[in-house]
Structure formats: C-alpha cells, structure tokens
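Q: Two folds, back to back.
A: First:
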Amino acid sequence: MLDSYHLQVLERSLDAATLRHRTIANNLANIDTPQFKSQQVVFESFLQDELNTRAGNGKLEAYRTNQRHLPFGNVGGVAVPQVVSNPNNFIQNSGNDVDLETETTELAKNQIWYSGLTQLTAGHFQKLRSVIEGGGK
C-alpha cells in the first residue's frame, strides 16, 4: 500500500498535470497574440531529483508512530510544479513563439499522463476500501 508520502507524490503529480493542461490551453489561446511568449510546466525533473535524493541518501528510513516523536530519515516535502518560459527556438513573424503542433502533442501526452495518475490514485483508494470492509467478507 501507499504511505502518505507516496500519496502526496500522486497528489502533486495530479496538480502538475492540471497546471500543465491550463498552461498549454493558455498557450493555444494566445497563438495569434503578437509578442506572446509560451510557457511550460517543469515538474518531473524536480520530482526525479527529490526521489533520487530520498532513495540514494544511504540513510536508514523509518516511520514515526506518533507525531511527537523525533523525525528520522528524510522528511522533506514533495516537489512543486513551476511555470517557466518555454525555451524554444520557434518564433513567428509576429514575435509569437507558440507552435501549434508542439502544443497539441504536449496536450495529448499530458492527458495520457493524467489518466494514468487518476487510475493509480483510484486503485489506491479501492485497496483502502477493501481493507476497511474486511477484504470482502
């Protein structure tokens, strides 16, 4: 089963996918706006760095059974998605850098990613429901 940290990772990943969808939609809505600079969401690299640090710190990890106990191991937060300027080289005559093909491709990839995350989250809560109900007895 997932512990609270992994559930937080799923939650932040869903937040990142939602933010990415909004950012891409904003880019597409401004495709004809002169001088508009597209944006993108950066999250996966931050999350990967955090997970590598968490797994590769070489320290023993443990769970606290009571919040008053001293923290043991890595108790850091979960990576936060950020919106940044898109560093692409595609620029139209109007100074706009939105590429329709790239944006629609990223939107489709993000939809698949979001769908997978929702399935993982739903599966987690289905397992919890099964445990609470006594395993189907």
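A: Second:
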Amino acid sequence: EKPFTCHECGKGFRVGSALNKHQRIHTGEKPYKCADCGKCFRLTSTLSTHRKIHTGGKPYVCLVCGKTFQLSAYLLAHQATHSADNPFQCLACGKNFSLRRYLAIHQRIHTGEKPFKCSVCGKRFNRRSTLIVHQRVHTGEKPYKCPECGKSFIMSSDLISHRRIHTGEKPYNCLHCNKSFRLSSHLTRHQRSHTGERPYKCLDCGQSYTDSSGLIKHKKMHMEKKQRTSQVAHQGEGRYKCPYCSKSFHAKSAQVLHRATHVGERPYRCSKCEKTFGHSASLLKHQRIHTGERPFKCPNCDKCYNDSSTLRRHRRSHTEEKPYKCPSCGECFGAIAALLKHQRFH
C-alpha cells in the first residue's frame, strides 16, 4: 500500500518523507548545500557523495585486496572479480579471472604489450578481436544490420545500443534520481551532475568539464585564438577594436561576430526547435540536423557529412594523418578526442 500520492505525477509512496523528497524533482528545491563549493543538492545522500570530491574520501574498502571506492555500488562491482570461480589473479591490480588465458590478455593492459598489428595503417592492439573490429574501418564491412531500419554497424554492441532507439529500452538507471538512459556512457555523464565530478581538464588553462565533448569544444577555442593571434601578428592591427578586450579586426563583420562571445548574445533562432546561436554560420550548420542535408562529400569513399570539420576528421582515416601529438610520450592521433583519452593514462 502506498497512501502518499504525488499530485504532480501520480506516483505513490509508503511514507510521507519519501513523498517530500520526490516532490523536490517537481519544485526544483535543493536544500542541501556543499560548504566547500556552494553547490546545492536535493538529497543528503547526493551531497555526501559529492563531498568526497573535496575530501578525497573512499570509505568502501574491499576486504580481499584493500582497494577503496567512493560508492558502495563501485565496491560491489569490484568484489565480483574476487569470486571463487575466478582463481587466476593479476598481481598488478588484484583482478581475478576464470581462465589463465584471460589473465594473460588482461596483463597486456599493465605491460603495454600490443602484439596484433593492422597491416593497413600499422596501428597495434592488445587483443586479436579488437584488431578484427578495427580492420572493418578500412574494409568498410558492417556485418551487424538492424532488422527494423536496415542500418548497419561495425560492432554488435553498437547494434544493441542502436536497437534501443526502436524499443525505447533504457536499462541504465541513476541511483540518485531514478532517471534512466539508453547508453551506459550517458548514465556516467549524467551522474556527474550529482557528484560534481569534472574529469576532463584543459592543460592550457585548467578549466574542467564533465564530458570530453565539452573539453574538445573548449580546446578549439584555444586553437582558434592562437590562429587569430598569428594572423594579427602577420597582418598588423585591425581598425575595428573590440570594446571588451584588446582584440582588433580588419572587417566590421568579424568584430560583430566576436562581440557576441562577450555579451552572450544569440540572435539566430532555429525555426524548427527554437534553439539559438551566436553566429548565422552556427545556425546553418545546426539546421542540417533537421533537413538531413550532408553537403560535404569524401572524394575517397563517397561518404557525406553535414559539416566540413567532420569531413576533415574522416579523411584522416584515408590519409593516416595524425596531427595531435601527446607532449608526454610523442604518440600521435588523428582526432583530438583520441589524444585526450590517451592523456588520461599519463
């Protein structure tokens, strides 16, 4: 029996306190404030989880190997690796495996060994199965086809994730607010809104982001700034000065576009979804999502894209160009996202 009913959505609860907590979803009330950073939360449990970022606390200890965790859910997932059915233990991290060959494959993570080499581009992998999947990038093979819409995929996991679009299945639930997601990566990103975790840090200015896409967008700002500085150095000072900073421009239109970045002005509105943009070019690019237009075609394989930057990234799969270099070890990558993912291991 659930005698306490929410008047907003009709959901029932056994006790009044549970209803009070639930109603904060509708009211937006966040009464629990972090004393360290001022961020507010709906539940005391969420605040407690968030505060571990400031304190570095990991109170959940594995009694088998001594490893500690911020959340009990993380500990439970870890403890499954110590099952009696998994007698082969990795001495580097304590993880257990059911077969010796699984342990041998796992240990390549620690040793860095990558014995499987792609004959087309030279990239190396620590598993044969990963190499086989990678080679489909070169061959264009997409063996996993959706029976609903006919779309094909390189990996079976991509097809499984895609089919949830048709079924509406959202198997990944947030423990903090009961919101559900189609992909585990979406849940991980969402949970950072509760914990305040921002693991993607800009090495140029120290600003942090909850997901890699935010950092990539931010890093482009640094790259564009360096390019503009270089252009000004070669061309001399422009006649149109920005009233908010020291920048100057040779064209009035360029100065107007730049000023929008200071005042937050977004005068260009999409007629389909009401989203607004600071530049007309950004609106045009966005509208292609609605129209399906893909005017940028790859001359090598006839694939089409809705913006030129995505086409440039794609063409590197043909040219093998790798312009993004890791300053720590010198390894190069074709995409900035791949470089950022790599840098997290340094």
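Q: And?
A: The chain has a mean pLDDT of 79.
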